[in-house]
Amino acid sequence: MISLNNAGFSYGDRAILKDVNQELAPGSFHFLTGPSGAGKTTLLKMCYLSLMPNSGALEVLGQDVTKLSREQITQMRRRIGVVHQDCQFLNHLSIRQNIALPLLVAGKNIEDNMDNLEDLLSWVDLSHRADAFPEEISGGERQRLALARAVIMDPDMIVADEPTGNVDWEMGQRVLTLLVELNKMGKTILLATHDLNLIRSIKGRVPASVLRLKAGQLSLAGAKL
Amino acid sequence: MSLNPMVLLFGESVSDQIVPPRGNAAWLTGLASGAMAFIAVFALTLSLAVGRLADYWSLDLARTATVQIVAEGEDLTAQSEAALRVLRTSPGVASAEIIDKSEQLALLEPWLGSNLPVDTLPIPLMIDVRYNADGPDVDSLKLRLSAEAPGANFDNHSQWRAPVLEASQRLRLLVALSLALTAVITVIIVVLSANNALASNQNIIRTLRLLGARDSYIAGAFVRRITMRSTIGAVLGMVLAMIAVVSFPSQPEANGLLSGMTLSGADWIYPIFVPILVGVSAFAASRLAARYQLHSVT
């Protein structure tokens, strides 16, 4: 699914990631943890093709990302669902419209996906808020909205950057439960978080590994959960 | 009739709604395009009026002449008869008629008023001469007139027609230049508006890219929105300008520039092209600006 081979990234002279090596198998669940500024977001951006490695090699969904054309990158992004801590929505569109946005930009027929859309709204428990606008809903609802938007294209992989960072424990667990359900459906999950309690809470629900990023280096932390 | 769920879900325009409808640039684009269209229609009307005036000076008056006979009593009668005979027998002259007293008074009334005792004024007798398609040999006609009616002065209007014609042609050129400048300003406004819209929505652009939107899709949404605003503004500007033209005091028969500031016949079609041209210009300019801006957004 994702293969990092001595991958590195730097902003100018400042190296963020150095010689990162890791394989993420299809259908696996990974936590990415590490101190602030360790490069978690940079690594995630590389995984969802927002940044390209400066050195080494990175394969995503079996493709060498450095050799992709602009059009291929666009097509690949449609196979990767992204959830941000500061979810970026189009605030002038309703919740329902925001969830449908990936279908729209991909030129898909929304009429054919109306059932899927309503199912997703129900899955993330936002059916009653479907016509509200993103600025009118709570932080937890925004995270669930971001998750629904991330999965509407039925992606192979979900990349989530601190999706529970701005919500309380209970809401964080609801978001995690949704991610676990997606993983059980075969989606690869890469979840960046610094919340160790969240990581521990997954034990026994799905097999997961914890990747620790420190000083630009990635390592497998502890035993598999 | 079935309702389209896409319309129910997203309203009239599905993909165009990704561009937020807010922002000063939104209505400024329409307002500026409307103002430009108004000016363009007015300039077009002026250009057409000047064109008609130039045609009048160059064609209508070029086919006429006036003969004045300064004499008194029986001499006046004899000279006028001689002049008429010469004129009517000259090849190229279609007609030669004495302008009667009432017509002369009507011509003088705007300048001298209606209460002036014109009978006491030494007003010369005037003959209105109209040429046929070929026109006469003016030099030989003048020679014959001077021989048979010495008091006759032949005036083919060339002395004052030429500078007026030149002035009208220059005015027409200036109006054409004004139209071109209006088009350039419209393009500049649209480019600035597109840049503003794209620059103030960079977060939306990044989000859309992250969701797998092609740049052409994003550009298309912005271009359609800007083109639509510009075209609607231009249509309103055109309509207002046409109302202004219709309400302009008009006396086409006077053939003057100010009194002829109107559109006639097929001329009414031309203003329709103004919003079309504004729309096409807005489309091209905003597309160019969008592509450039999107290229610079990482």
Jot down its keywords:
heterodimer; A: 225 residues; alpha/beta; Rossmann fold; six-stranded mixed beta sheet; four-stranded antiparallel beta sheet; 32% helix; 26% strand; B: alpha+beta; 9 helices
Can you lay out the helices and strands and say which pair or pack?
The complex is a heterodimer of chains A (225) and B (298).
Chain A: E1 2-11, E2 14-24, E3 29-33, H1 40-47, E4 55-60, E5 63-64, H2 70-77, E6 80-83, H3 95-105, H4 114-123, H5 139-151, E7 157-161, H6 169-184, E8 188-192, H7 196-200, E9 209-214, E10 217-220
Chain B: H1 5-10, H2 24-60, E1 64-69, H3 73-89, E2 93-98, H4 101-112, E3 125-131, H5 138-148, E4 152-155, H6 158-199, H7 202-210, H8 215-246, H9 270-296
Antiparallel strand pairs in B: 1-3, 1-4, 2-3
What is the residue-mean pLDDT of chain B, rounded to a whole number?
81
Helix content of chain B: 55-70%
Give the DSSP E fraction of chain A (strand runs of 2 or more residues).
25-35%
Q: What share of the residues of chain B does DSSP label as strand, in percent?
A: 5-15%
Rg from Cα of chain B: 31 Å
CATH superfamily of the domain at 2-90 and 156-220 in chain A: P-loop containing nucleotide triphosphate hydrolases
Could you explain the architecture of this structure?
The complex is a heterodimer of chains A (225) and B (298). Chain A has a domain of 154 residues: Rossmann fold. Chain A is 32% helix and 26% strand. Chain A has seven helices and ten strands. In chain A, a hairpin with a 2-residue loop joins strand 1 and strand 2. Chain B folds into two domains: 181 residues, no CATH class; 80 residues, no CATH class. Chain B is built from nine helices and four strands; from the N terminus they run H-H-E-H-E-H-E-H-E-H-H-H-H. The longest helix of chain B is centred in the middle third of the chain and has 42 residues. The two termini of chain B are 45 Å apart. Chains A and B meet through helix 2 and helix 3 of A and helix 1 and helix 7 of B.
